[in-house]
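Worked problem 6 (solution included).
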Amino acid sequence: MQDVGAWGIDLTMPQSLLLALHLRDAAGLDPPTSPVLPDLPPLDPAVRPLRAAGGLAGLEAAGQQWASWWVEHFPGGADALTSILPPRYPGLTGRTELRGLAELGMDDAVTWCARAREIEKRVVARAPSALFETNLVTAVERQLGWRIRPFSLRIVVLPVAGTGHWDVVGQPVISLGLRADRDAYLAWLREQLVQIGRTRIARSEEQNT
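Solution. The predicted structure is:
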């Protein structure tokens, strides 16, 4: 969490979403998209496909169940993580096909997530520091001509392929690849700060009329 004065920027890579995305990719699920579930690229590094005697069954139903789990639990957190963990998998109650796949692939998912965390550590070590973000806030305030009101910006980071970014019902989501590209990340962050600055001043003017 970068928290300077009256503003804060928090980048988080929720474990629950990583486990869920691993399950999606390993099982080859094709969940329906929605405003809460954009068409996210595959994980990077790629995951090992699930194997089962006789092949995987119920994938269409599991894809629907996966999408409903995501809508319920995005953007992650403690409850979301608990919901998808063994041995009870409480968030998969009534989602029989999805639970079967989770039981089959959870060990691989945990191992993959540990590897993803190591990659995240290397990215963070090279990523722009709080000073870059402080300077960027100052530059945006200079561009706008006014101080940005206090804000807290939570950014969900996902280790999916590419350097994409998504607005998921108001929640910013970026790829780890975008986070790793300093210039691209700061350019994207500038756009977010300009939007925050303009939105907050507009709301203030509305309240004063």
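Discussion: The first helix runs from residue 15 to 27.
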